[in-house]
Specification:
single chain; mainly alpha; 72% helix
Length: 80
């Protein structure tokens, strides 16, 4: 399990470096503190397609998953 988690973390940091850090020339530490959270929340979680999630962003995947779980429980109540 540890190797799997470590691989996921390494993959995330590679993505962060390649798609944000290497592409943006930070001039101050304040810029880093502003850009990194923006990248994670607005780009990585909401826009970036993830191959492990059938090429959809994590936020969209979570919404689909929540909707499916909600519909399944609703269907069970109707069937029972």
């Amino acid at each position: 399990m540890t190797a799997f988690v470590n691989a996921k973390i390494e993959s995330f940091f590679r993505t962060l470096k390649v798609e944000e850090v290497y592409m943006f020339e930070y001039e101050t530490y304040k810029e880093v503190l502003g850009r990194i959270p923006y990248f994670i929340e607005e780009v990585y979680n909401k826009k970036r397609l993830h191959s492990s999630l059938w090429y959809i962003p994590p936020e969209e995947f979570e919404n689909i998953n929540k909707n499916m779980k909600g519909n399944e429980s609703h269907q069970r109540v109707l069937i029972s």
